[in-house]
Amino acid sequence: MNLLSYLYRQSRQLLLLATIAGAIAGLSGAALVAVINKGINAPDRLWEFGLAFFGLCLLMLVSKLVAEISLLHLTQGAIYRLRLDLSTKLLATSVHRQQTLGKHRLLVILTDDVNTFTNAFEFIPVLFINAIVVSGGLAYMAWLSWPMLLMLAAFLSVGLLGFHMAERRPLAHLAKVREQKDVLYQHFRSLIEGARELQLNTERGRDFVSGVLAPGAAEFRQRFVRGMRGYAIVANIGTLLFYLNIGVLLFVIPHWLRLPAETLSGFTITLLFLIRPIIDLMTALPTLRQAGFSLAKIRQLDQELVPSEAAGDAARAFDTSAPLSIELKGVCHRYPGESGDGSFMLGPMDLRIAQGELIFIVGGNGSGKTTLAMLLLGLYAPEAGAVALNGIDVTDSNREAYRQHFSAVFADFHLFEQLPGIAGAARHQHALHYVKALGLQHKVKIEDGRFSTTNLSTGQRKRLALVAAYLEDRPVYLFDEWAADQDPVFKRVFYTELLPELKARGKTILVISHDDAYFSAADRVIKLEDGHLHVPERRDACAA
Ligand SMILES: Nc1ncnc2c1ncn2[C@@H]1O[C@H](COP(=O)(O)OP(=O)(O)OP(=O)(O)O)[C@@H](O)[C@H]1O
């Protein structure tokens, strides 16, 4: 039912077309049963019923095709939109929120849940038409004899109630199966990302598989088998009950109700005709139930992914004609710790950065350098205080426009094959120039707006990330430990040539670095200690 209301919201027209075509298919199916029943009981009118039979066959074929194809378009359109909607929303959700939601949780929804949902949609056309066939069959039986139909309805109601009760346990197992998927995805992520560590230590690898992955996979298997076994039992008993029903109609009810042979045979043929749709439904039920759980997860994520920022033409809010000036005013950011005492607090911090400055952000591990960078880039929103650009505070409504002033190569950067920037010969030439300047011309080519390969060493991949950053040509650059993976020669090139070149082009540059040998290259060094700016001792005051 959830799936149908979801489809209704996607395209009423297609659903209406499918309903009408499906209704014609269902009714022609029911009429076929009536014609067969009449034909058997009227041998003198064979031509008449024969023509009607073949005409109805054709009508059923055409209408069924129309219904199935329109439902196919409807369901696949719905899946396509769902994938794009979720991706767009994810893109608009703050990085901090995404980190809180957890990568594995996002992945399981975007891949597994959407797939489960797609699988269920494959059943929809058949089930939809079957539902109409069943309705047509019931209508025909009511026309044949409504007291018989009432008895059948009473019998079916008891059966449905029993089915509902019997389904509870397998349904609970399937709900647990879905929860277990989150756990499994988390383990698979660790397995892939930690493959090197696990292979280096065979015992550790075995322990991970047998002690961490296997219990999760076993729990999944156990729940899934129990759930599906329950459904298999319920479905087979349900089908058997249907046959029993036919037996009761044929051999028990005639003892109480005097019915013409034509009515009895009509009922029997109709019920036999309905067995296939009922079996189809029983087979599809577990998949539909799993899709229900997946849909609930997708909906939950959809709500949690509320874009934190209203995208608008907010670029106008900043005065881009004036020299760029970024200011932090009492900015604070906290990461909650597991038990409260493990939390980390950056700030309150005041800082002013002027256009063209080359600033090094330094400090020990965990002192807050990357967190400060995230706040400066507008990827984290401060919990208190404000970030301002050219005197205008960055708020939810203009944070996206604010971020467009920056280009960054993070310590844990992601290298896209595609080149950023507007396509064209100029971008191609620029990219070639930078690839050459970074000494990668023998390794990488630029083809169709993308790097020919990204399968390179870490240091080389970082150089390509720098090429991509150069192509973005933003006013402010951030490099988080870029030089950490470079050889001494390129480290020197970076600090003594590349950074001064960028500065000469008027760029503002923020460099997170541990390379104290090159700190003298900076206009200013900002040192962090436990989330606070380190204020250097006033040697002049001491001297006095
Ligand atoms: N995702 C997170 N969730 C919770 N706490 C975090 C998270 N990331 C960082 N922290 C905490 O914030 C502190 C500062 O982290 P940050 O990454 O800013 O340090 P850093 O100075 O860049 O360190 P490094 O030199 O090791 O890269 C850390 O001590 C850690 O306790």
From TrEMBL:
The lineage of its organism: Bacteria, Pseudomonadati, Pseudomonadota, Betaproteobacteria, Burkholderiales. The chain crosses the membrane at residues 46-67, 123-143, 149-166, 231-253. SUPFAM superfamilies: ABC transporter transmembrane region, P-loop containing nucleoside triphosphate hydrolases. One of its GO terms (molecular function) is ATP binding. It comes from Massilia violaceinigra. GO terms for cellular component: plasma membrane. The keyword Flavoprotein does not apply. InterPro entries: AAA+_ATPase, ABC1_TM_dom, ABC1_TM_sf, ABC_transporter-like_ATP-bd, Cyc_pep_transpt_SyrD/YojI, P-loop_NTPase, Type_1_exporter. It holds the Pfam family ABC_tran. Residues 326-544 form the ABC transporter domain. NCBIfam families: cyc_pep_trnsptr. This is ABC transporter. The keyword 4Fe-4S does not apply. It is a multi-pass membrane protein. Coiled coil: none annotated. It is found in: Cell membrane. SMART domains: AAA (SM00382). Residues 14-290 form the ABC transmembrane type-1 domain. GO terms for biological process: peptide transport. It comes from the Bacteria. Keywords: ATP-binding, Cell membrane, Membrane, Nucleotide-binding, Transmembrane, Transmembrane helix.
